[in-house]
Design brief:
Rossmann fold, 7-stranded parallel sheet, 6-stranded parallel sheet, 38% helix
Length: 366
């Protein structure tokens, strides 16, 4: 089953200030490897133009557009003739883009929400920045990076015709243990600044760094405000493109995973960084959220910490042998169930189910 797929996503050419790029890159590369023909349409924004670390992805055709009018003028045939059109979350002018896609497409349509709990929280506040409630039942498929009870909520409360989890993933060709890695950090964190993640970063990394000034810590990510007080033991890296992620994970004895508040509340929302770090063989210390134990076994594949004291205990006392065992089991789990090839096959299965079953498309506003 070879498909012509048109994707409208936040960005695939630049990873600056967003985690969407790595998710789109992994998924499209895996789909291309399975014989699908992919066109990715991206709104040309100056902050991405200034930092394009993959301006021409080799696994898909990529085209930039200026605005919705330019999109409609140049790419209506690409949407009309595709077997599957996917609109992503946080696409600029997303509501207008989605309405146009739903009107123009003759094949299947999907919304891929890489921010599901944030999306639903925005809708609850009446915020329709990139999706409005009336559009949700119009898509043939609602793909969500959040699983668990949220999928039932999407179908029952918002009228999604078919809500399915499509978790983030990792490409093992790019994420693997660095040969001969010699960690120089005791604990590191990779993530763009988010106000609702900052308290956890404070308690689980910055406070341990204050209490253990002899330790070595690192935080990599953009958009952190100038008033953050970084302890002397913390090295700051402003932006780390995906090509440098593997080296950064290999430089850490432990890596920290922290989760946005809306995603903690919803549960079942694994960050792409979880999969990347595990694939690189770096043991993970994470905050806790419902559903985490359905993805990793706590204590055996991932470590949980709720305070600075617990973080310091793990970082300072865990033996090298136990660290290696935990990291090895997590990597095995990822390679068995959470690679980009797994996600490509899951998407194919959803498309096949839609093609096999009856259904009537709703028009936006019906």
């Amino acid at each position: 089953m070879s498909l012509r797929i048109t994707i409208l996503g936040l960005s695939i050419t630049s990873s600056w200030g967003n985690g969407h790029a790595t998710t789109w890159r992994a998924l499209t590369a895996a789909l291309a490897a399975r014989g699908h023909d992919i066109l990715f349409l991206e709104c040309d924004k100056p902050w991405y133009a200034a930092s394009r670390d993959l301006p021409e992805p080799p696994f898909c055709a990529t085209r930039l557009y200026a605005d919705v009018a330019d999109l409609q003028a140049r790419f209506t045939p690409a949407v009309r003739d595709a077997d599957l059109v996917i609109v992503g979350s946080f696409v600029p002018d997303g509501v207008a883009v989605a309405r146009w896609v739903l009107a123009a497409a003759t094949g299947l349509t999907a919304f891929y929400d890489i921010d599901t709990p944030v999306t639903l929280a925005k809708l609850a506040r009446g915020d329709t920045e990139y999706l409005s409630p009336d559009l949700i039942p119009c898509f043939d498929l609602y793909l969500s990076f959040t699983g668990g009870p949220t999928l039932t909520r999407l179908e029952r409360s918002f009228g999604a015709r078919m809500a399915r989890a499509l978790y983030c993933s990792v490409d093992p060709a790019h994420y693997y243990p660095e040969p001969g890695a010699n960690p120089c950090y005791d604990l590191g964190y990779l993530g763009t600044y988010s106000a609702d993640r900052q308290p956890a970063l404070e308690s689980l990394l910055l406070e341990p760094a204050r209490r253990w000034p002899e330790g070595r810590f690192a935080v990599a990510g953009s958009l952190y405000p100038d008033d953050v007080e970084w302890p002397a033991a913390v090295e700051r890296i402003d932006h780390l493109p995906p090509g440098d992620h593997r080296g950064f994970y290999g430089a850490q004895r432990f890596t920290l995973n922290i989760t946005r508040a809306d995603m903690v509340a919803a549960g079942w929302s694994p960050s792409v960084r979880l999969f990347e770090a595990a694939a690189c063989g770096t043991p993970i210390i994470s905050d806790w959220w419902p559903g985490l134990d359905s993805l990793f076994e706590p204590g055996r594949e991932i470590l949980i910490a709720r305070s600075a004291e617990e973080v310091l205990s793990l970082v300072r006392t865990l033996s090298p042998a136990r660290r290696a065992a935990i990291a090895g089991r997590a990597r095995t789990r990822i390679l068995k169930t959470h690679t980009s090839a797994h996600r490509a096959r899951e998407l194919e299965a959803h498309v096949a189910a839609l093609r096999a079953g009856p259904g009537v498309r709703l028009a936006a506003g019906d």
